[in-house]
Design a protein that fits this description.
This protein has three helices and seven strands. The protein is α+β, with helices and mostly antiparallel strands. The radius of gyration is 14 Å and the shape is globular.
């Protein structure tokens, strides 16, 4: 039996070369440890735009503009979730101060297939590349 549905905000961070910035979770992270995923987390309010900005600040230590893209419903180890997916543009990574996870990196579309990515991130990536 799944717990109450979670509401999660994530951002697809893209540079001008169409590479995507992903974050690697630590090995002690409770859900999908050691995998690559988007910056984001569980929403604490219903202002999803504000929640996304908070998550970026908490995880990367920077402020960014974000644009809402789409929602995606999932069922996984995490339970039932609704993801609010945003898009951010970032070319200068020098101001990032990693505050969560064990690292970040940019990946091209072809490289993404070779990574250990959680199933929710994978589902969002497929929709992103198919529709946008």
């Amino acid at each position: 039996m799944y717990k109450m549905e979670k509401t999660i905000v994530v951002t697809i961070i893209e540079n001008n070369k169409k590479e995507l910035l992903l974050q690697k979770k630590s090995l002690d992270y409770p859900v999908y440890p050691g995998v690559w995923c988007f910056v984001g987390g569980e929403a604490e309010s219903e202002d999803f735009h504000k929640e996304m900005l908070r998550e970026i600040k908490e995880e990367l230590g920077i402020k960014m503009n974000v644009k809402f893209m789409f929602t995606e419903k999932t069922i996984s180890k995490r339970g039932k979730s609704t993801f609010y997916v945003f898009l951010s543009k970032l070319n200068d990574l020098s101001k990032i101060k990693i505050k969560e996870g064990v690292g970040i990196a940019l990946f091209g579309k072809k490289e993404l297939n070779q990574l250990r990515i959680d199933p929710e991130t994978k589902k969002i990536l497929i929709k992103y590349f198919k529709e946008f």
